[in-house]
Amino acid sequence: MRRALLTGNEAIAEGALVAGCNFYVGYPITPSSEIMHYMARELPKRGGIFFQAEDEIATINIAIGASWGGARVMTATSGPGFSLMQEGIGYAVMTETPLVVVNVMRAGPATGQATKPAQGDLMQARWGRHGDQVTPVLAPESPQECIELIIKAFAISEELRVPVIVLTDEFIAHMREVVEIPDRVEIPFRRRPRDSSETPFGSPDPRIAPPMPPLGEGYYVLVTGSTHNEQGYRDTRGFKTHFKLVKRLWNKIWLNIDKLFNYEAWGIEDLEIGFVSFGSTSRSVKKACKILRSKGIKAGYIRLKTLWPLKLKPLIELSERAKIVIVPELNLGQLIFDVERTIRNNVKVISYGKVGGGEPIYPSELVKLAIEVIEK
Amino acid sequence: MTNLSRCKIFVDINLCKGCGICIAMCPRKVLTMSSDISPRGFHYPILNGECIGCHICEFYCPDFAIRSVCGD
Amino acid sequence: MMLVDKHFSRKYLREETLPTLFCPGCFNGILINALSKAFEELGIEDLRRFVFVSGIGCSSWIPSPYIRADSLHTLHGRAIPVATGIKLAKPELEAVVIAGDGDLASIGLGHLIHAARRNIDIVTVLVNNYVYGMTRGQVSPTTPTELETPTTPYGAFEYPLDICKVIEATNANYVARWTIAHFTQLKDSIKDVFSRITRGFRFIEVIAPCTTYVSRRLGKTPADTIKDLLRESVMVNKAKSMKDKVIIGVFKFEDKPGYIELYRDYIKRAKLNKR
Lengths: 376, 72, 275
What we know:
The complex is a heterotrimer. Chain A is α/β, with parallel strands linked by helices.
């Protein structure tokens, strides 16, 4: 274990290296470029591969090829690049290709405010691909958590043969904090077929990913983005093949929700006002809760570390215990939809969306809002 | 010198789609289209003359269906 | 004993996938024959050290599922970046891209040019059938003018792209164009990119007009088209003042270091660097 003073972007890169990332492909885009620069300096020295592609579409496809070539690969981008990568990410889901994609969120849509933080890509991270697909989405709140969750992202992607999205924002990317970096973490490589009875795209247990045959060893694997059967043969006509495949890919994530879903809860045993947040806004939420408690108002929060798949139970519990739930987010309202779904009683749910100019949601704003609502 | 009468033509009628390329490309014009149809519903080439074993029909068959085999 | 009782291509194909779904008379099968003959003459018994990467379109189905080898059937236009990733991660593999004009020279044109520019160590076979065949024959960047297609019902009018000329202008090592009618030369070209030059970007364009949406529309049989191609082609060295001919031949034959070698030198510099 060693300590360092790192920005969130640097922490992502360091965490990836600790996790065994040996291939980085990317395209410059604010505010993620520092991740790429870090990998450009470190990977060649360590015998890894660094590649700057001509655009984000090339980037995601190179990443897919590299993963099949046996590399542990990551890329990082922001909104516009993330949009370009959607088709590729969908291909990685369909072909069960391990991959880590970091989206350092900035204000959108389109070019937006390139240097300003936002949280407007939440729904896109979950649903950006066409068709039925599910990709795990993780959301750190600090440089330290960037290290922890990027390592977790690699572990999930190798074990479940799935692309994993890590959502940060410009606040986290550029804030500098002391972090503790583990020396080395052993993440098992995706497993290879034991024998010919194991198919590369089918699994008797839907929670377990099929083995991934390496290229160049005579497996003659058929990888395709078309609907395919367990052996990889394309079948674009039958109901059974398609339904079975997409259902298995869906279940592969949702049935593992206990392993995948993480959150932080504070003060929820006894509360009047609950907050639900993720990422950088959580830091303001924490401060606001402390201030409110000091004023005698029972405040607490749920902070999602995993944005997808989502377990509604903690949110339901929160809405059952609190009188008021406030959902602060740096967008016009996306996380709010999850919370509204969990309302079981007369709890008042308030969406507090704010975005633009890199203005954070200040703890004082949340305190003021909470007091106003309580007094009504 | 190849013994011309020992060159035979084999057609896999499960693969042939009756496209006619081999018949048109044969430099000796010794292939003709059958009158009956294969189980897949296509006419297929049959040898009607002496094959010299140039293998042009093999090279240009898009369905890997025809072979010219010469010698013992 | 090898499959002497079967056509020579079949030892490299997945038997269970035959007959192919290609139209009767489609020239994709002839390219498969050229590949097979090349492998056979190079003494390659099985394709385990190859990985084929294709995109979307009829010619992209050549390796997936018909060739018995590791293959990745990827997104439209993106075969070249996928092959690049594979080659960089596992350089001992021979990465071969097979895709069409509507794929590599249209949506994928940017990737094609950049990979050629970087002299990425892959072989690319571009099957030019002059249209978007799989989606019913719409105009593509290489469609000859005046051809009627569903999206140019009054005749194609855009200038078609001379792909080899574009690639020749980059740092690619090997650039060649043949037609499907030139079986022997095509086969020898394929042998060359796996034996005489084994590094850098090696590019072969294969003119193979779509039997259904080009030949048939013009009232021709596939055999007519083969004979037309033989008549209408001229070797590149003879082409100077000729118009209306398909220029074929090897446009470029250089053996410069490929991207992999350049990157390895870069890593050496990185390790010596004090930063």
